[in-house]
Amino acid sequence: KGEGHVEGEKVENPDTGLYYDEYLRQVIDVLETDKHFREKLQTADIEEIKSGKLSRELDLVSHHVRTRLDELKRQEVARLRMLIKAKMDSLQDTGIDHQALLKQFEHLNHQNPDTFEPKDLDMLIKAVSADI
Questions:
Q1: In degrees rounded to 5, what are phi and psi of residue 123?
Q2: Nearest Cα to 84, choosing from 106, 94, 99?
Q3: Is residue 46 domain-resident?
Q4: Total of domains in the chain
Q5: Is 2 a domain residue?
Q6: With contact defined as beta carbons under 8 Å apart, do 118 and 59 qualify?
Q7: What is the pLDDT of residues 9-38, one digit of tens each?
Q8: Residue 116 contacts by C-beta under 8 Å, 6 or more apart in sequence?
Q9: Residue 40 is part of which domain span?
Q10: What's this model's pTM, rounded to 2 decimal places?
Q11: Is residue 92 classed exposed, middle or buried when 0-12, 13-18 and 19+ CB atoms within 10 A define those classes?
Q12: CB–CB of 50/125 below 8 Å?
C-alpha cells in the first residue's frame, strides 16, 4: 500500500552478529547527532574510515557528544567486566590471566575505561572490519 520511507524515520539495520553490536550502534547513533561528524562520515570513503583518518575528527565533535560517548564507553566496560567476572566464576579461578581476558575485547581501549578517545573509535572500526 504505498508505504514508503518517511523523512526522519529510522531505518532498522539488521543485527551484525557482533558481541558488541549494541555498543557499535549506540556509538554510531551518538556520532551522527553531531552535524560536522555526520557530514564527514557521509563524504568519507571506506579506506578513510578503515585507516583511522575519520577517528581524528572525533576531536571536533561537541562537548555533549563526547560526554555521551564517555558514558557509553563506561557502560560497555562495565558490561565486559561483568562478562569476565561471570567467566572467571564459572571457571572457579583456575589461574586465568585477567589481562589476557581483557585483550579478547579489541573494540575499545580497556587501558582507559573512562573516556572515549579517537583511539577508541579507531579500535571499534578496526574490530568491525576484522570481525565482519
A1: -65, -40
A2: 99
A3: yes
A4: 1
A5: no
A6: yes
A7: 444 566 778 888 999 999 999 999 999 999
A8: 27, 58, 66, 69, 70, 72, 73
A9: 18-131
A10: 0.69
A11: exposed
A12: yes
